Amino acid sequence: MDWQFSPFFLIIAGSGVLSFVLGLYAARRLEKPGAKALMIILFSSAIWSFLYVVQLAVIDLPLKLILAKLQYPAILAIPVAWLDFAYHYRKGRSGLSRTQLTVLISIAIILIGFLFTNQYHGLMWENIRLNTQGNLTVISRDFQIGFWGLVVFGYLPLIYGAIIIIGVHFRSRHLYRAQSMALLTGLVLVWIPNIAYLAELTRIDYSPVFFTLSGVAFMLAIFRFHLLDVLPVARDLVIDGMQDATLILDQDNRILDMNRAAKGLFPEGTTHFIGHRIESLAPQVATIVEQTIDADTQKQEFEIQPNDTTRVFHVNASPLKDYPGALLSRVFVFRDITQQKQYEIRLMQSQKLEALGQIAGGIAHDFNNVMATISGALQFVEMKSNTGEIDKYLEMMRAGIERGKSVTERLQTFIRSGEPERKPLPVDKFFDDFQEIASHTLPKNIRRPKSSLPLAT
Q1: How far apart are CA 67 and CA 48, in angstroms?
Q2: In 3-state terms, what secondary structure has residue 332?
Q3: Class of the 235-336 domain?
Q4: Is the pTM of this model over 0.85?
Q5: How far apart are CA 274 and CA 296, in angstroms?
Q6: Domain-wise residue ranges, the chain
Q7: How far apart are CA 174 and CA 294, in angstroms?
Q8: CA distance 160 to 390
Q9: According to CATH, what is the number of the domain 342-421?
Q10: pLDDT by residue (tens digit) across 258-306?
Q11: CA Rg value for the chain
Q12: pLDDT in tens, 128-177
Protein backbone atom coordinates (compact mmCIF):
# COMPACT_ATOMS: atom_id res chain seq x y z
CA MET A 1 0.00 0.00 0.00
CA ASP A 2 1.33 3.41 -1.05
CA TRP A 3 1.30 6.37 1.33
CA GLN A 4 1.89 10.09 1.09
CA PHE A 5 2.79 12.64 3.75
CA SER A 6 2.43 16.35 4.36
CA PRO A 7 3.32 18.36 7.49
CA PHE A 8 -0.21 19.61 7.89
CA PHE A 9 -1.25 15.98 8.51
CA LEU A 10 0.27 16.54 11.95
CA ILE A 11 -1.95 19.59 12.45
CA ILE A 12 -5.04 17.56 11.61
CA ALA A 13 -3.95 14.75 13.92
CA GLY A 14 -3.12 17.25 16.68
CA SER A 15 -6.57 18.77 16.33
CA GLY A 16 -8.07 15.30 16.69
CA VAL A 17 -6.05 14.68 19.84
CA LEU A 18 -7.15 18.03 21.30
CA SER A 19 -10.80 17.29 20.56
CA PHE A 20 -10.44 13.83 22.10
CA VAL A 21 -8.91 15.21 25.31
CA LEU A 22 -11.66 17.82 25.64
CA GLY A 23 -14.21 15.08 25.01
CA LEU A 24 -12.74 13.08 27.89
CA TYR A 25 -13.12 16.12 30.15
CA ALA A 26 -16.77 16.47 29.13
CA ALA A 27 -17.28 12.73 29.70
CA ARG A 28 -16.17 13.15 33.32
CA ARG A 29 -18.89 15.75 33.89
CA LEU A 30 -21.90 14.05 32.34
CA GLU A 31 -24.08 15.15 35.26
CA LYS A 32 -23.83 18.73 33.98
CA PRO A 33 -26.45 20.01 31.52
CA GLY A 34 -25.21 19.72 27.94
CA ALA A 35 -22.07 17.74 28.83
CA LYS A 36 -23.18 14.63 26.93
CA ALA A 37 -23.96 16.61 23.78
CA LEU A 38 -20.65 18.45 23.98
CA MET A 39 -18.83 15.14 24.49
CA ILE A 40 -20.42 13.75 21.31
CA ILE A 41 -19.41 16.87 19.36
CA LEU A 42 -15.79 16.64 20.51
CA PHE A 43 -15.43 12.86 20.06
CA SER A 44 -17.06 13.09 16.60
CA SER A 45 -14.65 15.87 15.66
CA ALA A 46 -11.75 13.69 16.80
CA ILE A 47 -12.99 10.73 14.74
CA TRP A 48 -13.49 12.94 11.68
CA SER A 49 -9.95 14.32 12.03
CA PHE A 50 -8.31 10.91 12.47
CA LEU A 51 -10.17 9.31 9.54
CA TYR A 52 -9.56 12.30 7.31
CA VAL A 53 -5.82 12.33 7.92
CA VAL A 54 -5.68 8.60 7.04
CA GLN A 55 -7.79 9.25 3.93
CA LEU A 56 -5.32 11.92 2.83
CA ALA A 57 -2.34 9.71 3.60
CA VAL A 58 -3.41 6.72 1.47
CA ILE A 59 -3.28 6.87 -2.31
CA ASP A 60 -5.52 3.93 -3.27
CA LEU A 61 -8.88 5.25 -4.59
CA PRO A 62 -11.16 2.48 -3.22
CA LEU A 63 -9.59 2.83 0.23
CA LYS A 64 -9.88 6.62 0.09
CA LEU A 65 -13.58 6.23 -0.79
CA ILE A 66 -14.24 3.85 2.11
CA LEU A 67 -12.48 6.19 4.53
CA ALA A 68 -14.46 9.15 3.16
CA LYS A 69 -17.75 7.31 3.77
CA LEU A 70 -16.71 6.28 7.29
CA GLN A 71 -16.31 9.94 8.24
CA TYR A 72 -19.96 10.82 7.68
CA PRO A 73 -21.51 9.13 10.76
CA ALA A 74 -19.24 11.39 12.85
CA ILE A 75 -19.88 14.39 10.58
CA LEU A 76 -23.68 14.05 10.86
CA ALA A 77 -23.51 13.40 14.61
CA ILE A 78 -22.04 16.88 15.12
CA PRO A 79 -25.07 18.99 14.00
CA VAL A 80 -27.53 16.81 15.94
CA ALA A 81 -25.41 17.02 19.10
CA TRP A 82 -24.85 20.75 18.54
CA LEU A 83 -28.58 21.45 18.41
CA ASP A 84 -29.11 19.33 21.54
CA PHE A 85 -26.33 21.27 23.27
CA ALA A 86 -27.89 24.59 22.25
CA TYR A 87 -31.19 23.50 23.83
CA HIS A 88 -29.36 22.55 27.00
CA TYR A 89 -27.47 25.81 27.00
CA ARG A 90 -30.72 27.77 26.83
CA LYS A 91 -32.94 25.63 29.08
CA GLY A 92 -30.64 23.61 31.34
CA ARG A 93 -31.37 19.88 31.40
CA SER A 94 -34.23 20.18 28.89
CA GLY A 95 -32.46 19.37 25.63
CA LEU A 96 -34.06 17.93 22.52
CA SER A 97 -37.04 15.72 23.24
CA ARG A 98 -36.85 11.99 22.59
CA THR A 99 -39.10 12.41 19.54
CA GLN A 100 -36.91 15.18 18.09
CA LEU A 101 -33.76 13.10 18.61
CA THR A 102 -35.40 10.05 17.06
CA VAL A 103 -36.43 12.00 13.95
CA LEU A 104 -33.01 13.60 13.50
CA ILE A 105 -31.09 10.37 14.07
CA SER A 106 -33.43 8.49 11.72
CA ILE A 107 -32.84 11.04 8.92
CA ALA A 108 -29.08 10.85 9.52
CA ILE A 109 -29.15 7.04 9.30
CA ILE A 110 -31.13 7.18 6.05
CA LEU A 111 -28.69 9.65 4.52
CA ILE A 112 -25.71 7.54 5.61
CA GLY A 113 -27.43 4.52 4.10
CA PHE A 114 -27.75 6.34 0.77
CA LEU A 115 -24.09 7.32 1.04
CA PHE A 116 -22.86 3.76 1.57
CA THR A 117 -25.02 2.45 -1.31
CA ASN A 118 -24.13 5.25 -3.69
CA GLN A 119 -22.64 2.81 -6.22
CA TYR A 120 -26.15 1.46 -6.86
CA HIS A 121 -28.04 4.72 -7.42
CA GLY A 122 -25.52 7.58 -7.75
CA LEU A 123 -27.69 10.00 -5.77
CA MET A 124 -24.80 11.21 -3.63
CA TRP A 125 -21.66 11.25 -5.81
CA GLU A 126 -20.77 10.76 -9.43
CA ASN A 127 -17.46 10.61 -11.32
CA ILE A 128 -15.36 9.60 -8.34
CA ARG A 129 -11.68 10.00 -9.24
CA LEU A 130 -8.21 10.85 -8.02
CA ASN A 131 -6.92 14.37 -8.43
CA THR A 132 -4.00 16.44 -7.22
CA GLN A 133 -3.79 19.34 -4.81
CA GLY A 134 -0.23 20.60 -4.73
CA ASN A 135 1.93 17.52 -4.21
CA LEU A 136 -0.91 15.46 -2.72
CA THR A 137 -3.20 12.96 -4.39
CA VAL A 138 -6.77 13.57 -3.29
CA ILE A 139 -10.21 12.19 -4.09
CA SER A 140 -12.60 14.24 -6.21
CA ARG A 141 -16.34 13.73 -6.70
CA ASP A 142 -19.21 15.42 -8.46
CA PHE A 143 -21.84 16.18 -5.82
CA GLN A 144 -25.39 15.06 -6.64
CA ILE A 145 -28.80 16.03 -5.28
CA GLY A 146 -28.72 13.48 -2.48
CA PHE A 147 -25.43 14.87 -1.19
CA TRP A 148 -26.83 18.43 -1.17
CA GLY A 149 -29.74 17.10 0.86
CA LEU A 150 -27.18 15.73 3.31
CA VAL A 151 -25.49 19.15 3.42
CA VAL A 152 -28.81 20.90 4.11
CA PHE A 153 -29.56 18.40 6.88
CA GLY A 154 -26.14 19.04 8.40
CA TYR A 155 -26.29 22.83 8.24
CA LEU A 156 -29.87 23.45 9.40
CA PRO A 157 -29.31 22.18 12.98
CA LEU A 158 -26.00 24.05 13.09
CA ILE A 159 -27.64 27.30 12.00
CA TYR A 160 -30.64 26.88 14.31
CA GLY A 161 -28.38 26.03 17.25
CA ALA A 162 -26.25 29.08 16.47
CA ILE A 163 -29.39 31.26 16.45
CA ILE A 164 -30.34 29.90 19.89
CA ILE A 165 -26.89 30.66 21.30
CA ILE A 166 -26.90 34.13 19.70
CA GLY A 167 -30.21 34.77 21.44
CA VAL A 168 -28.70 33.70 24.75
CA HIS A 169 -25.71 35.93 24.01
CA PHE A 170 -27.79 39.10 23.70
CA ARG A 171 -30.00 38.30 26.71
CA SER A 172 -27.17 37.37 29.04
CA ARG A 173 -24.44 39.04 31.05
CA HIS A 174 -20.67 39.19 30.70
CA LEU A 175 -19.72 35.59 31.52
CA TYR A 176 -22.48 34.05 29.41
CA ARG A 177 -21.62 36.33 26.50
CA ALA A 178 -18.01 35.23 26.69
CA GLN A 179 -19.13 31.59 26.69
CA SER A 180 -21.47 32.01 23.74
CA MET A 181 -18.90 34.02 21.78
CA ALA A 182 -16.30 31.28 22.24
CA LEU A 183 -18.80 28.62 21.13
CA LEU A 184 -19.88 30.58 18.05
CA THR A 185 -16.27 31.34 17.13
CA GLY A 186 -15.43 27.63 17.25
CA LEU A 187 -18.40 26.87 14.99
CA VAL A 188 -17.64 29.58 12.42
CA LEU A 189 -13.99 28.53 12.22
CA VAL A 190 -15.11 25.14 10.92
CA TRP A 191 -17.84 26.54 8.67
CA ILE A 192 -15.52 28.73 6.58
CA PRO A 193 -13.22 25.99 5.18
CA ASN A 194 -16.12 23.56 4.82
CA ILE A 195 -18.11 26.02 2.71
CA ALA A 196 -15.00 26.67 0.59
CA TYR A 197 -14.68 22.89 0.04
CA LEU A 198 -18.34 22.46 -0.89
CA ALA A 199 -18.05 25.41 -3.30
CA GLU A 200 -15.10 23.51 -4.92
CA LEU A 201 -12.71 26.37 -4.20
CA THR A 202 -10.30 23.72 -2.93
CA ARG A 203 -10.03 19.94 -3.37
CA ILE A 204 -9.07 19.47 0.31
CA ASP A 205 -11.57 19.99 3.11
CA TYR A 206 -9.58 21.99 5.64
CA SER A 207 -12.36 21.79 8.23
CA PRO A 208 -10.47 19.25 10.40
CA VAL A 209 -7.41 21.52 10.26
CA PHE A 210 -9.46 24.36 11.69
CA PHE A 211 -10.59 22.05 14.48
CA THR A 212 -7.36 23.11 16.19
CA LEU A 213 -8.54 26.70 16.39
CA SER A 214 -12.04 25.54 17.27
CA GLY A 215 -10.53 23.40 20.01
CA VAL A 216 -8.81 26.49 21.44
CA ALA A 217 -12.16 28.32 21.42
CA PHE A 218 -13.85 25.41 23.16
CA MET A 219 -11.00 25.26 25.68
CA LEU A 220 -11.61 28.92 26.50
CA ALA A 221 -15.33 28.24 26.91
CA ILE A 222 -14.75 25.22 29.14
CA PHE A 223 -11.82 26.28 31.31
CA ARG A 224 -11.78 30.08 31.24
CA PHE A 225 -15.50 30.77 31.12
CA HIS A 226 -16.61 27.69 33.12
CA LEU A 227 -18.73 26.06 30.44
CA LEU A 228 -20.43 22.96 31.95
CA ASP A 229 -20.16 24.63 35.36
CA VAL A 230 -22.06 27.84 34.69
CA LEU A 231 -24.92 27.91 32.19
CA PRO A 232 -27.50 30.70 31.74
CA VAL A 233 -30.37 28.45 32.86
CA ALA A 234 -32.30 30.92 35.00
CA ARG A 235 -31.65 34.41 33.70
CA ASP A 236 -35.31 35.04 32.85
CA LEU A 237 -36.28 34.31 36.43
CA VAL A 238 -34.18 37.17 37.81
CA ILE A 239 -35.56 40.68 37.45
CA ASP A 240 -33.14 43.50 38.00
CA GLY A 241 -35.94 45.73 39.19
CA MET A 242 -36.65 43.55 42.21
CA GLN A 243 -36.02 45.32 45.52
CA ASP A 244 -35.11 42.05 47.21
CA ALA A 245 -31.55 40.88 46.67
CA THR A 246 -31.63 37.69 44.57
CA LEU A 247 -28.78 35.23 44.05
CA ILE A 248 -28.79 32.12 41.86
CA LEU A 249 -26.15 29.56 42.83
CA ASP A 250 -25.32 26.18 41.36
CA GLN A 251 -24.69 23.06 43.43
CA ASP A 252 -21.05 24.13 43.93
CA ASN A 253 -22.13 27.56 45.25
CA ARG A 254 -20.92 29.35 42.13
CA ILE A 255 -22.86 32.49 41.31
CA LEU A 256 -24.90 31.84 38.17
CA ASP A 257 -26.72 35.15 38.24
CA MET A 258 -27.83 37.97 40.50
CA ASN A 259 -29.80 41.18 40.34
CA ARG A 260 -28.58 44.69 41.10
CA ALA A 261 -29.91 44.65 44.65
CA ALA A 262 -27.72 41.63 45.45
CA LYS A 263 -24.57 43.72 45.03
CA GLY A 264 -25.35 45.24 48.42
CA LEU A 265 -24.61 41.86 50.04
CA PHE A 266 -20.95 42.04 49.06
CA PRO A 267 -18.14 44.26 50.33
CA GLU A 268 -17.87 47.60 48.60
CA GLY A 269 -15.54 47.48 45.62
CA THR A 270 -16.45 43.94 44.51
CA THR A 271 -16.86 44.02 40.72
CA HIS A 272 -16.72 40.43 39.43
CA PHE A 273 -19.43 38.06 40.59
CA ILE A 274 -20.61 35.61 37.91
CA GLY A 275 -18.76 32.30 37.95
CA HIS A 276 -17.07 32.90 41.31
CA ARG A 277 -17.75 30.84 44.41
CA ILE A 278 -19.71 32.72 47.04
CA GLU A 279 -17.16 31.78 49.71
CA SER A 280 -14.42 33.72 47.96
CA LEU A 281 -16.45 36.92 47.74
CA ALA A 282 -18.54 37.04 50.91
CA PRO A 283 -17.85 34.34 53.53
CA GLN A 284 -20.62 35.72 55.74
CA VAL A 285 -23.19 35.32 52.97
CA ALA A 286 -21.80 31.84 52.20
CA THR A 287 -22.41 30.80 55.82
CA ILE A 288 -26.00 32.05 55.60
CA VAL A 289 -26.49 30.13 52.34
CA GLU A 290 -25.31 26.90 53.95
CA GLN A 291 -27.53 27.43 56.99
CA THR A 292 -30.55 28.27 54.83
CA ILE A 293 -30.34 25.12 52.68
CA ASP A 294 -29.81 22.95 55.77
CA ALA A 295 -33.04 21.02 56.31
CA ASP A 296 -32.65 21.22 60.09
CA THR A 297 -32.23 24.98 60.18
CA GLN A 298 -35.28 26.93 61.29
CA LYS A 299 -33.65 30.35 61.51
CA GLN A 300 -34.59 32.54 58.57
CA GLU A 301 -33.38 35.95 59.77
CA PHE A 302 -29.71 36.87 59.61
CA GLU A 303 -27.54 39.89 60.23
CA ILE A 304 -25.04 40.87 57.54
CA GLN A 305 -22.32 43.50 57.72
CA PRO A 306 -21.20 43.93 54.10
CA ASN A 307 -19.61 47.28 54.92
CA ASP A 308 -19.81 49.41 58.08
CA THR A 309 -23.53 49.02 58.70
CA THR A 310 -25.42 46.05 60.08
CA ARG A 311 -28.49 44.98 58.11
CA VAL A 312 -31.05 42.32 58.89
CA PHE A 313 -32.35 40.04 56.13
CA HIS A 314 -35.05 37.42 55.90
CA VAL A 315 -33.61 34.72 53.63
CA ASN A 316 -35.64 32.29 51.57
CA ALA A 317 -34.14 29.50 49.46
CA SER A 318 -35.94 27.80 46.58
CA PRO A 319 -34.64 25.07 44.24
CA LEU A 320 -34.82 25.45 40.46
CA LYS A 321 -35.60 22.12 38.82
CA ASP A 322 -36.19 21.00 35.28
CA TYR A 323 -39.26 19.10 34.14
CA PRO A 324 -38.03 15.64 35.29
CA GLY A 325 -37.28 17.14 38.68
CA ALA A 326 -33.48 17.27 38.59
CA LEU A 327 -31.93 20.11 40.57
CA LEU A 328 -30.43 22.82 38.36
CA SER A 329 -29.65 25.56 40.85
CA ARG A 330 -30.95 27.38 43.91
CA VAL A 331 -32.52 30.82 44.18
CA PHE A 332 -31.82 32.79 47.36
CA VAL A 333 -33.95 35.85 48.07
CA PHE A 334 -32.64 38.26 50.71
CA ARG A 335 -35.40 40.61 51.93
CA ASP A 336 -34.03 43.59 53.84
CA ILE A 337 -36.09 43.87 57.04
CA THR A 338 -33.75 46.25 58.87
CA GLN A 339 -36.38 49.03 59.12
CA GLN A 340 -39.03 46.52 60.16
CA LYS A 341 -36.77 45.22 62.94
CA GLN A 342 -36.08 48.79 64.09
CA TYR A 343 -39.82 49.48 64.17
CA GLU A 344 -40.35 46.29 66.17
CA ILE A 345 -37.72 47.44 68.67
CA ARG A 346 -39.39 50.85 69.03
CA LEU A 347 -42.77 49.17 69.40
CA MET A 348 -41.36 46.87 72.08
CA GLN A 349 -39.95 49.86 73.94
CA SER A 350 -43.32 51.60 73.70
CA GLN A 351 -45.01 48.50 75.06
CA LYS A 352 -42.50 48.42 77.90
CA LEU A 353 -43.32 52.04 78.74
CA GLU A 354 -47.01 51.23 78.63
CA ALA A 355 -46.47 48.31 80.97
CA LEU A 356 -44.38 50.54 83.23
CA GLY A 357 -47.21 53.06 83.29
CA GLN A 358 -49.64 50.36 84.32
CA ILE A 359 -47.28 49.31 87.09
CA ALA A 360 -46.90 52.95 88.19
CA GLY A 361 -50.69 53.28 88.25
CA GLY A 362 -50.91 50.29 90.55
CA ILE A 363 -48.23 51.75 92.78
CA ALA A 364 -50.03 55.10 92.87
CA HIS A 365 -53.24 53.33 93.86
CA ASP A 366 -51.48 51.45 96.65
CA PHE A 367 -49.74 54.66 97.73
CA ASN A 368 -53.13 56.36 97.98
CA ASN A 369 -54.30 53.57 100.22
CA VAL A 370 -51.24 54.04 102.42
CA MET A 371 -51.85 57.79 102.54
CA ALA A 372 -55.49 57.17 103.49
CA THR A 373 -54.40 54.88 106.32
CA ILE A 374 -51.89 57.42 107.63
CA SER A 375 -54.44 60.22 107.30
CA GLY A 376 -56.98 58.26 109.29
CA ALA A 377 -54.44 57.49 112.01
CA LEU A 378 -53.41 61.14 112.08
CA GLN A 379 -57.00 62.25 112.66
CA PHE A 380 -57.24 59.80 115.53
CA VAL A 381 -54.05 61.27 117.08
CA GLU A 382 -55.45 64.82 116.75
CA MET A 383 -58.59 63.76 118.60
CA LYS A 384 -56.50 62.44 121.50
CA SER A 385 -53.97 65.30 121.68
CA ASN A 386 -54.45 68.65 123.38
CA THR A 387 -50.84 69.91 123.05
CA GLY A 388 -50.44 72.85 120.72
CA GLU A 389 -46.84 71.93 119.91
CA ILE A 390 -47.93 68.52 118.71
CA ASP A 391 -50.78 70.05 116.71
CA LYS A 392 -48.32 72.11 114.69
CA TYR A 393 -46.41 69.03 113.59
CA LEU A 394 -49.59 67.12 112.99
CA GLU A 395 -50.65 69.90 110.65
CA MET A 396 -47.38 69.55 108.74
CA MET A 397 -47.95 65.81 108.47
CA ARG A 398 -51.45 66.40 107.21
CA ALA A 399 -50.16 68.82 104.57
CA GLY A 400 -47.52 66.29 103.49
CA ILE A 401 -50.19 63.62 103.14
CA GLU A 402 -52.27 65.97 100.99
CA ARG A 403 -49.25 66.65 98.77
CA GLY A 404 -48.64 62.90 98.47
CA LYS A 405 -52.25 62.42 97.41
CA SER A 406 -51.87 65.25 94.91
CA VAL A 407 -48.76 63.61 93.41
CA THR A 408 -50.48 60.25 93.02
CA GLU A 409 -53.51 61.93 91.45
CA ARG A 410 -51.31 63.72 88.91
CA LEU A 411 -49.49 60.44 88.19
CA GLN A 412 -52.77 58.63 87.63
CA THR A 413 -54.00 61.47 85.41
CA PHE A 414 -50.81 61.21 83.33
CA ILE A 415 -51.15 57.45 83.02
CA ARG A 416 -54.77 57.79 81.90
CA SER A 417 -53.66 60.44 79.36
CA GLY A 418 -56.32 62.74 80.72
CA GLU A 419 -56.18 66.51 81.00
CA PRO A 420 -54.52 67.49 84.34
CA GLU A 421 -56.40 69.80 86.69
CA ARG A 422 -54.59 73.07 87.34
CA LYS A 423 -54.94 74.68 90.85
CA PRO A 424 -53.26 77.69 92.53
CA LEU A 425 -50.38 76.75 94.87
CA PRO A 426 -49.64 78.98 97.93
CA VAL A 427 -45.88 79.31 97.68
CA ASP A 428 -45.55 80.95 101.13
CA LYS A 429 -47.20 77.98 102.73
CA PHE A 430 -44.90 75.61 100.81
CA PHE A 431 -41.78 77.43 101.98
CA ASP A 432 -43.02 77.64 105.55
CA ASP A 433 -43.52 73.92 105.65
CA PHE A 434 -40.15 73.30 104.01
CA GLN A 435 -38.43 75.67 106.47
CA GLU A 436 -39.83 73.81 109.44
CA ILE A 437 -38.39 70.55 108.15
CA ALA A 438 -35.09 71.92 106.81
CA SER A 439 -34.29 74.08 109.88
CA HIS A 440 -32.88 71.03 111.63
CA THR A 441 -30.28 70.35 108.89
CA LEU A 442 -29.48 73.74 107.28
CA PRO A 443 -26.92 76.17 108.85
CA LYS A 444 -28.40 78.72 111.28
CA ASN A 445 -27.26 81.69 109.15
CA ILE A 446 -29.61 80.70 106.31
CA ARG A 447 -32.98 82.36 106.75
CA ARG A 448 -35.92 83.12 104.46
CA PRO A 449 -36.97 86.76 104.47
CA LYS A 450 -40.58 87.42 105.39
CA SER A 451 -42.30 88.57 102.22
CA SER A 452 -45.53 87.99 100.48
CA LEU A 453 -45.08 85.75 97.40
CA PRO A 454 -47.70 85.29 94.70
CA LEU A 455 -49.49 82.06 94.20
CA ALA A 456 -47.80 79.61 91.83
CA THR A 457 -49.98 78.26 89.11
Answers
A1: 10
A2: strand
A3: alpha beta
A4: no
A5: 29
A6: 8-224, 235-336, 342-421, 422-457
A7: 31
A8: 114
A9: 1.10.287
A10: 777 888 788 777 777 777 888 888 877 888 777 766 644 445 777 777 6
A11: 45
A12: 999 888 888 899 999 999 999 999 999 999 999 888 888 877 766 555 67
